Amino acid sequence: MFIHNRLGLLESVETMLNHEQRLNQVTNNLANVDTPGFKKETVTFDEMLYQANSSRQRVGKALRINTVHQQGVVQKTDAPLDLAISGEGFFRIQAPGGVRYTRAGNFQRNNEGLLVTANGYPVLGEAGPITITGNRFEVARDGRLSVDGVSVNRLTVVNADPQALKKEGENLFRLAEGAAEEASPNFQLLQGHLEKSNVNTVTEMTEMIDLYRAYEGQQKMIRAVDDLDDLAARRVGSLAG
User: Is the pTM of this model over 0.85?
Assistant: First the structure.
């Protein structure tokens, strides 16, 4: 069976591009190792058979980006506006593009008394955006909110199919079209706590080293194919002479 040298070159280039994409994901994970509620991403490499032209099929490289929703370590902060979800679920956020979801509970109170995210987006409760007009803000484990001992709202914690949650930036997720949220049945809210990122620095650094070695291997493959082309050209030239 004849295999064209250029096919080997193409395979190596596709693999290098996919390794580069995975390296971008590892770098982003490491950059967010201290971001509250951040969920790391992994890349799954696949191969697919497709029609290269009318007479030939070939195997191409593909990748799929996956978000790991495993809960991060919950750290005590004693800050009354810091909230962590222990168990399943997401906070509902009113973003400019509509309702979004996050696990980051490093909330603040803005000048209007609204409970907002670090980016200034209102946090939603059962009665809409949460307003804090008093001094003592308390959150029960089931999400009930009280200010100065008076019940004012209940923090909404919802769940959704992880495959339907798409990262949108600013540590927010959006629901894919056609997907629906539902009330989370299994959670506890911890006031004065924050969920940390689920990124493991050692794991990501090890992955980065492995990617570097794999990238080098593909570079060597490209040089080998180039040497074969050069050898073939020189032999054809000597035969023609």
Answer: no
